[in-house]
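Quick start: read one record
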Amino acid sequence: MSSLTLGDVADLSKRFPELGAVDPLSFMKNCRDLRDKGIIPASGHDDTSAPLRLLPRLAAVLSRVNKVDAHHIDTLWDALRDEIWRMPTQRQSHRRTVAMFETTGWEKGITYISHYPPSWLCTNPECDYELELRDHTASYSVTFTIDDGVQYSKVVNLTCPRCRCNYRRNFYADDRSKARTYYKGVPDYIQVGENHYVEKRLAEIWTNDMLVSQTSATNLADLYHETYAVKRDEMENDASKFSIPFRTMLTADDVWNAILVLALLRDRRPHNRPLAVAHAGEGWPDFADALRERNERFQLFGQPELRHCCTGCMCCHDGYNNEGQHIRWKTQVALTECAQGVGKVMTMRPCGIVLGCSTLIPGADDATNAIMHVKNVSSLFGALKPEFWMYTGHEQARSLTEGDEWWDSVDICCPNGCMSNTFCELRTDDGKDRFETRGTGMKVTQWLDGYREIMDGMSAARCNFFLDEMVRLRNANMLLSLRETQCYPSYSPLGDKSSVRVVTEGELIIPPSGFSG
């Protein structure tokens, strides 16, 4: 640590009265951070010495950050540069602070991490108690973190003396209604068991690992212990003398619970509704009702990207009909594939956006499953019926749809581009395929089938929830990619399901950039 004392600070103010109310410690920390990033280089002749002068642009930055006149920065630097250069790095300083709690605080019940309710007031809308809550219970737990490994942590719960609601870090519990209501938003630490918490950043990393690399919960738990759990090599003292009275090994159930709670809390955010589950004492709650509600919503309304459209999956055309009216029509494509490995059928756009995912109908062949799925997805509220549907078994599908009026306005094609010459709407003016359909369905199917082992042993409700969440996150990543490649992702208007319509007088007749054909 720096050897600068309060007396030195007072002496500095006497020597340089023009500095006024400047905070030298804040200035030193800011300079230390720039030093650690290599922005303030060491002295040219000695790596362990501070430079005599700061570069003008760095002095300007420090002047702005510290709210100090620019001409005072050199004065501060001359007086403090040696102290700044001896300061430990921010990481070293943090580790020393944590080590202090681990080596001397834990055995006295003083922890670096504490879990308190977000408010000390009763927020039950049916309770009129307005005073600060004083009735509390204290206990301890284990918290899994990224930067500080496995931490012993304190837990404080508050109870309202009037309504008896029990307020905790993530939720409040009402024993009378047997309900556990989570606070809105996602907390920094997520409770995953009776005595275990997980840092939110870890839950986000695990979710992304499952999305991108399809890593199992067991492997993620093992990876945590190899990567984050042990920090003893960075500690100056050994904290292992204190024996934590709880399990300190992360389990696959902890990983799953963290991912589950994170997904459910994220799901409630756009609806501005809290997550509520059954409360049965201190045990882990049953999320069956919450999973069922989410699954039913996705069945009724599809994925959030159900109304997606972009230049990679839709094209707009302008022309005139036989009556001389100016009309506009669209060409939109959908693909459907069956992922037998996970027992699912998916309908997607050529751009890669998945519109919906459902369980295969037992006993039905792939073509029947595909036909029923694209029809169901395209009939959901807000969805648009495609003009072209592409399916690998297009010949069988064509024969199965004969006599169904729904298919009269839909052309069934091969997704490999072998039929693009038959339909001018599927070609650009220079004769190339308008939409990239070759292999799109296969890529998404292979990605989904990669979850086969992860889903082994899951209940049907959890399986549907998990795959819907992975598809939702994949769609979100695809949207970023479509924006970067200037595919202009957007959403179709609600209520207008027509493929051809007359352009009214005064309406903008030029389609949005990128959608004209």
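Confidence is low (pLDDT under 50) at residues 232-237, 506-517.
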